[in-house]
Amino acid sequence: MKILVINPGSTSTKVAYYQAGYLKESVALSHTEKELENFSHVLDQLDFRRLVIFQFMIKHGIEPKKLDAIVARGGILPPVKAGAYQIDSAMIHYLTEMTPIEHPANLGALLAQQIQLEANTETLALIYDPVSVDEFPPIARISGLKGVQRKSLGHALNMRAVAMKVASDREQTYRECTSIVAHLGGGNSISLHHQGKMVDLISDDEGPFAMERTGGLPLKAVFHLGETRDEQALLRLYKRSGGFKSYTGTTDLKEIEAKIATGNQTWALVHDAFCYQVAKGIGELATVVNGTVDRIILTGGVAYSAAVVAKIRQRVEFIAPVVVEAGEHELAALANGAQRVLAGKENLQKFQIVDRKEVKT
Fold it and tell me: Cα dist. 53→30, 56, 58 in Å?
């Protein structure tokens, strides 16, 4: 099986080539602010990103017509079940005309489709576990305000991948295990995986603050911010100016921990508070399954920090053993998903909008 993997991010395009289940080539193609400032909208970057992918393929002798599958990171779609989705005209139309959030991941399906045009008629183009994977039961959707539903928006691809990997490492299936997975990075997601589904999730606007995101805030205390800022300004504030950046001026965790080591007590308190809030989120999800949790998994870039892991472990290990799978496993997760589809072990689903009203909520 020959599989090309595409993962577009805000300042990079990650590309990988897998053959017979093994990674052969990969690269994280960085894009400077100067390169990207010429594009008013994310979708305007399509031709630019397509070119860098083809340059990668040419450099490594990867022929489109010999590919079995092209798999990309999924974008901001309506709520969907977990798994693989065929890229078709309906998906492309939604991502270009209807999606409510402009996000680099929206380019994934478009780029895969462009490469598929150069491939053969048997080459599959698909996405896997987009950020909008939503398997909540009805009780998890109630927010506290009629007309506003809780939604599952988070790092589904990486979280489901590490939950599957850790289960497999212990000779179990994903369906057999109950795991809480905390993805800790620029933004956070904490999710509960039970009986083969991601049944609840604390998104980055509900739970602990992150490197640059505010997390959930005391609602009454921030009402006044809307008097001087429009919606876009408030979104930028919550997504780009909160968390560690708000308190320390940086999102470099190594720099923060080095400063703490010199005796900076203010930054040490913020570091402690971050671990405290992550632990609270993990504990909150444990109640959904009455505390019956097989393991807690810490993943994402922040999980490389031994200090963060130690502080969280101290607070939550009474619930279940803590396993660390630091970093992002998205390229492998995409490739493995495509491989399961090609091997007939997983179905390729058809994208459809089940409830258009739900998209606008």
Answer: 12, 5, 9
| Own/partner pairs, 18-21, CB within 8 angstroms, 24+ separation | 18/335, 18/339, 21/339
- The tally of domains found in the chain comes to 2
Q: Do 308 and 343 sit in the same domain of this protein?
A: no
Computed on alpha carbons and rounded to an integer, the radius of gyration of the chain in Å comes to 20
Question: In 10 A of CB 107, how many CB atoms?
Answer: 25
d(CA 92, CA 152): 21
In order, the DSSP letters of 149-178 are E----S-HHHHHHHHHHHHHHTT--GGG-E
Note whether 217 and 346 are same-domain residues: no
Predicted confidence pLDDT, tens digits, the chain (361 residues): 999 999 998 778 999 999 999 999 999 988 887 888 889 888 999 999 999 999 999 999 999 999 999 999 998 999 999 999 999 999 999 999 999 888 889 999 999 999 999 999 999 999 999 989 999 999 999 999 999 999 998 999 999 999 999 999 999 999 999 999 999 998 899 999 999 999 999 999 999 999 999 999 999 999 999 999 999 899 889 988 999 999 999 999 999 999 999 999 999 999 999 999 999 999 999 999 999 999 999 999 999 999 999 999 999 999 999 999 999 899 999 999 999 999 999 999 999 876 544 433 3
Question: Burial code of 290-323, b = ≥16 C-beta within 10 A, e = fewer?
Answer: eeebbbbbbbbebbebeebbebbbebbeebbebb
Residues 128, 173 share a domain: no
- The residue assigned the tokens 């798994």 is 83
Length in residues, the chain: 361
| Residue listed under structure tokens 């959030």 | 101
Q: Give the residue numbers spanning the domain of 101.
A: 2-132+330-360
E strand or H helix at 323, and its extent?
strand 322-326
Write the CA distances from 152 to 8, 131, 197, 271, 306, integer angstroms: 21, 8, 12, 27, 29
CA 68, CA 98: separation in Å to the nearest integer? 30
The neighbour count for residue 93, using CB atoms within 10 Å, is 11
Distance CA 290, CA 282 (A): 13
What is the CA 291 to chain-centroid distance, rounded? 25
